[in-house]
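Bug: token stream looks shifted between consecutive jobs. Job 1:
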Amino acid sequence: MKKIIFSSTTLILLVVGTIMSLLLISSYQKSNGYWYKEVHYAIKVERHVPRNVHEEMNLYYDITLENGTVMKSLRHVSVGDTIYFDMYKVGK
């Protein structure tokens, strides 16, 4: 008999959790925001010159994009590689 009570309790919790998740997802969809993708190209890639011991242990690359933005990457990227950014715009 205890096994049946455990199973019904689990089922009720699963249904309540599913309903709560659907309500939460629907509230996010009502916002004025939207997703879009930005595409940029690497025009310059340099190994970062470490300035202290911590940076020597975590080497990374400085990547310059065609729009002038400089970003850091742990992976080596070649010049001309495409970098995709998933952006979420909030508001109008």
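Job 2, same session, no restart:
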Amino acid sequence: MSYHELSIQLLALGQKTADHHQELEGQPLAKAAEALEKALARFGKKLEEFLGGHGPGIRELEELLKSPQAKAHLNLPALNLLAKNLFARHLSADKAAAAKKEFLEQVKKERAGEQAVERLKAFFYKAAERPAPTKDEASLQNELLYLGGLNDDELAFEFSGRLKSLALLKVLAKVNAIPFSRETGKEKLLELITHYARRAHSNIRHRHHELD
């Protein structure tokens, strides 16, 4: 049924009810009317939300964007990662606050509220499950392999959050025998870590293929 057909049925039902309202009685009809009233209230709320730019999931998304998790994890690289995942493109804003606003507007435009809520919840869960690695050798070796399997957007998020510390990056590089000097800057160090991480990840995948 189309919404136009629904509107015609509602108009016809309303007119018939108005024409005969004085003679309507009985418990079965009253129960049906009460159920209809509740259903109409729910539909009316959803319709108002949609027409006001608050389609399915938008209100929940707005709350998530204001949550403590958002303050902790939702920086510019994270928002770009989510936008790329949902809309296959980065956001144009270059500041987190403006990017958050742009992200919300794009979700409304695409009517992707429910999908955005689902992806954002999964993102928060994953972010909470992966704290900064401990500085033991095994942990840092596993971290390098993990980084090697990430795309550029995912790496940008990791290096802007839990792997933001230059001291930690140097330990990560040293433990994994990545060559760098005291003069090596952070950008160059990130480039080296990315290169060696992807090489290590590729080698592991190649070995697995050979075993298969």
